[in-house]
Amino acid sequence: MKSNPLVKINELIEQDYLIVVDTNVLLGLYRLSPDYADFALKCLEKIKSFIRIPYVVALEFSRHNRKLYKDRQLSIKNSISDNLTMIENHKKKVLNAIAVLEKRNFPEIDELLNSVGACYDKATSLLDDYFDEHSVLTLINDTWNSDLPEDFLDELQNNQQIMAPLELSEIYGICDDGEKRYKKENPPGYKDAKKKDGIRKYSDLIWWKEVIQYARKSRKNIVLVTDDVKEDWWTIDEKGQYLFRGELITEFEKETKIRANQNQGTQLESLKLIPFISSDFYTAVANSYNIEKADAIGLAMNLTDKSYISHIQEKVFDDILDDLIFSGTQYVNDTVTYVGTEGIESWDLEDCEFLGYEIESRDGNTIYYRLNYSVCLSGYSHDYWGRDEDTKAVILSEPFYHEVKGEISVLVCREADLLIDYEEDDDYASAEIEEGDLSEVVYKDYQYEPEPDPEAYTTCSECGKPLSVYNDFNGKCLECAALED
């Protein structure tokens, strides 16, 4: 069954459906842009009376919401300065590139520098003016004067809309069952098996069982909203639509059916489950109740770029390391003294440091980041001297040693949407080295170094003449030793 934004939520409520919301949907409210978060809360507020929250979901929410609320305030505050910083970084980079032309005797470079600099200053001014003119927008002035998701959950708690906790014996039974299910990769929750431990490893399965038990006892059909889009909840079809795992639908229907021998001779048929991801759910609610919709693509973009970069910076470098090692002189500038005719087969990484990042561009829900690294590489090259007449083996010169140092830029493509787990997100569509500026810092030509005399292993302590096994007399040469006698 797919997540369908065209479903009429008001009609489902009239048919006695209740709405169950997962932890990631509630915590996701902190990660949305202010406008989209307000839109989502307006949708939840509209159907608030029909929402039920599993006890485990409420517990998990209380563990994380304070930190996310604080991070949210900082991300909104920093969003303006981040945009201005991006322009300034681009300006410096372009002006530095133009300045190189002056060293190569291009004419009228000063005029070009002034014109380009003025364009960047104009861009900064336009951005400043935009923020001034739109200061009423929630992108800048946040409408939240308190922790609204927490307030919302507190109200549900006061109205007894939080499900009762399971007995400890029931939880242990679910954990035992979960161990068997996870080995067979039966949904839900098995994707958490390696990331979590103890009872937390089974939290998805526990709240899933809470939902089934609540539905069975209350005889209510369920609308289930979860943004956990790992394969143990959802699959994605060829059209990019989210399909809820069929095994979960089957389990829900099986477990909510009550046989006659279990209910004093009266059989109760299976209940229905309709699944959603939150973006489709909010759209469905907005359509059903004529709530003005926000732009889900434009406004739901996350404002935690810095956190995301901290998650991916090492992984990105590991991914491009092979390309860097076998790049030869592709990213080395013209400072190299000489490279042998055979080129540099591979580099050794001597040092690496992450310098920072820039947002290169945004296109819908695709973001391009430029990650900058300082690297130091060492390697050897050789000249080709021919082949041995007898063995036909390639004969190479003595090595040339090279050590280069400088910066490389890696372009990373990220696909971002409402369903990203921003606390742990380290996914990206691609990462590739876009440019490099490495300069030679050490060059050594081993073929012109004098070969040491294998028999000259020390020198005379008197005259400095080289000594060997044939003329060493207690550290002195024959002549100096004779003078002593």
TrEMBL record:
It comes from the Bacteria. Residues 18-248 form the PIN like domain. This is PIN-like domain-containing protein. InterPro entries: PIN-like_dom_sf (IPR029060), PIN_8 (IPR041578).
